[in-house]
Amino acid sequence: MLGMVPEWKGGRMTLSRDVCHDFQGRVDRIPVHGLGLSVDVYSPDLHSLLADLTSRQVLPMYLEVFHATSSALAAVRDQTNLPLPYHGEGLWVTQPGAGNDPLFQEEARMLASNLSLLRSAWSNHECATKHIAGYSFGTYLPPLYTTASADIVAKNINMVQAIFDQSAALPGGGSPLFLLEMPPLTFFVAGTLSIPAYFRCVTEQAACGLVLDVGHLWTVYRYSGAWRTQSLMQFVDDFLREFPVERVVEIHVAGLAVHESLVGEAGIAKSADPNLLPRWTDAHAAPIPSVLFEMLDQILRCGRLEQLRGMALEVDTKPNGLIADELAWFLERYKQVFDQPVLQGSVAGVSSSLPVHARFSTDSGVVSKTESLAEAYEAYAQIVSGRAEPVGPNWMAATACAEDLDWYRTKYLPYEILHWGGDVEAMFPETCRELAGRQIVTDSFVSYWFHRPHPVTRSYDFFDVKIDRFVEFISENASELTLLVQREATELRLAYQAANEASSQSTGVHR
Questions:
Q1: Which fold has domain 7-359?
Q2: Helix (H, G, I), strand (E, B), or coil: what is residue 249?
Q3: Single pTM value for the model
Q4: Domain limits of the chain?
């Protein structure tokens, strides 16, 4: 374990002894899960996927199930005897104010109930959010990498873990462990703390485990600008030297691909510059590139993975045949990773304590006393949505990189709002035809989306948010179409509710 000594960080002293002892006691109760899949209940349909894998005699050792309704999860529990850890959603631990938010606490209690239902050994959550300062996004945005942000994450994790302890007891004793996953970078990084130092700051204050996603690590290499000055191998070595690898409980591997919004753009997949890396982003439906397994091999050689309990391919939205092919190869290549002699050999004689320079990494810049974390996140939302320019220490520090921010603001984000999670013109066909006749382009919906904040009042669902925002957009910009858009919205909501109910009964309908 870590050296149990007080550390002085950012003007305060952190005692990590009790935190490390607490984590060790929790992780010691988790058995090795081995090689598995991180899956969605609905896409692909989990029942058909398991049937296909069984017919090919290619079976995972565990399934990490993504967020779903309680009835759908109960059906999954009835289908298999495999261990079923959980990948949560909608619990935004990066955001300030969670301690006073009844909705956050309700989400945590619902999560605890689902963990009990599945008998999950852990609950994994991205260190990311889809809702910032009242503004909604379709896919994960990373946190501000600052000490103040890490402090809030640790505080929120401790609160959720306490709810697990109270409400999610496991049959063999103890409660599920909260795992925090390093998120992907989608073209940019903001903050004054290096990413590995950020996660060390969190783990000094919270007895959580970590999920290290290899594809996410590649995006850090690409969008932090590290690729311009380091080889990938050197980057991974340097990253692992500072990252709290001894807290890693699970490793993920998933596909990478050029995002749909960028397909056809000059200089994306190919370039005259042989050193320019593709603008890949996290893409679970895509094949896993070989470079990620080269990185995984390097990670497994680092010698500090003494708490590793599972490695999973993330395969939600991927075709069954491709899942089976990748899983068969994965099981064969890494079948000895969890053999006891291999685990012992990987840590023998290796100290878990980090070099002094890594343990004392601190912010390269300090947020002014007048700028709270909430204000910093409000500025973050304005900047990434294109309503403000990237200025200030969070965007100018050596640890930040806004080189490709405009790709997010002008390509990726408009695609999310207009097409991802429900194509607007397909959702509201009659209303959109009427808009076209009035020379009102649906692209103007993108700028409208961010014209004012909207508080979250129910469990986060981007499809629901999109319906709400589009009805408001029409009511304010083409009021004569209000009754029409409200009728289409009602039909959408009823169809969506019916699909969810059908999915819960059969786990065969994609929500």
A1: TIM Barrel (3.20.20)
A2: strand
A3: 0.90
A4: 7-359, 421-506
